[in-house]
Amino acid sequence: MDFEKKFKIVVLILAAVIAFGTLGYSVIEKWSLLDSLYMTVITLTTVGFGEVHPLSPAGKIFTMVLVMMGVAGVAYTLSVIARMVVEGEIKRHLGRRKMQKGLKELKDHYIVCGFGRVGRRIAQELCARGVSFVVVDRNPQRVEQANMDCFLFVQGDSTHDQTLIDAGIQRAKGLITAVINEADSVFIVLSARQLNPQLYITARAESDDGEKKLLRAGANKVVSPHKIGGIRMALTALQPNLVDFMNVVTDDQKTDFFIEEIEVKTGSPLVNSTVKVCPIRHDLGVTIVGIRKTGREVFFNPSPETLIESGDILIVIGPRKNLEKLEELTGGN
Are strands 110-113 and 174-177 parallel, antiparallel or unpaired? Predict the structure, then answer.
């Protein structure tokens, strides 16, 4: 039984006992409702005040019954409250209310469907990069882990539209499905694409056939952890220094060196300048690895004469604080 049901039962028991006492005194002793309510309250709380009016024999018997009922009701109420405190239900309930408020305020966030080993790693990476996100999983143990990690979460089936709506999919920027079941992933992608056509969807695939289905379902990108893991292990054996470098710019939290993609917005002072004359390299110490032009492939290691235009995506490497300055510079008006 959840917190709200327990709390409602406790309130109903206390209300029933008070109503029973008030009605009893009113009928048996012919007292007013105020006097009857007052007598009931001082009887149940055992504060030791005197009787409102002298009691008849029937009233005394009724008072004894009321006291026994009150003691039993109060004892049950205290036991339930104590159990909720010991089990941390009150704290969890308040935490859930705070979480629900946080969910309603989320905008341009990411939804991570599935909080297994891959999903948790994704969430940790998003958290490390300061990206807003919410975790969705139907497994109570995984949801509890997300709660312990201080991540926003929604407990529910990601294949259901209402669960995604609860996670704020209409306001979300992207969705990452990390569930291991490819059929579930396809359903999630189909639902997400219908609920938010502008959503950027990244899906996990376990097979080549599943990758094709997920792309047809509407995923923007499909990633196979097994394929990436195999390539990474092969490169580690063949080119360990290259892998060490990639670790530094992708997932080494001990350094302040990152690789990012940054869009050049309209109105940015970088628009219509060349790679050679723009201040990215000599003022910010950031290296341009590649540029993706609108609707075209990525140009790696662009020449100094390459023109930077509005809408270009710059793939850059540099210290975090310098990348933040570059984002300000490319932000436009």
Answer: parallel
Tokens found for residue 206: 């376990």
Say if 3-87 and 256-329 have the same CATH topology.
no
Residue 309 buriedness (CB in 10 A; 0-12 / 13-18 / 19+): middle
Q: Are 129 and 159 in contact (CB under 8 A)?
A: no
The CATH code of the domain at 3-87 is: 1.10.287.70
Q: Of the CATH numbers 3.40.50.720, 3.40.50.300, 1.20.1050.40, 3.30.930.10, which one belongs to the domain with range 106-223?
A: 3.40.50.720
Overall pTM surpassing 0.85 (yes/no):
no
Residue 84 CB contacts under 8 Å (≥ 6 apart), including other chains: 3, 6, 90
**Per-residue pLDDT tens over the stretch 139-154:** 989 988 888 887 888 8
CB 259 within 8 A of CB 249: yes
> How many separate helices (H) and strands (E) can be counted in the chain?
12, 12
DSSP 248-266: HHHT-TTSSEEEEEEE--T
C-beta atoms surrounding 329 within 10 Å? 20
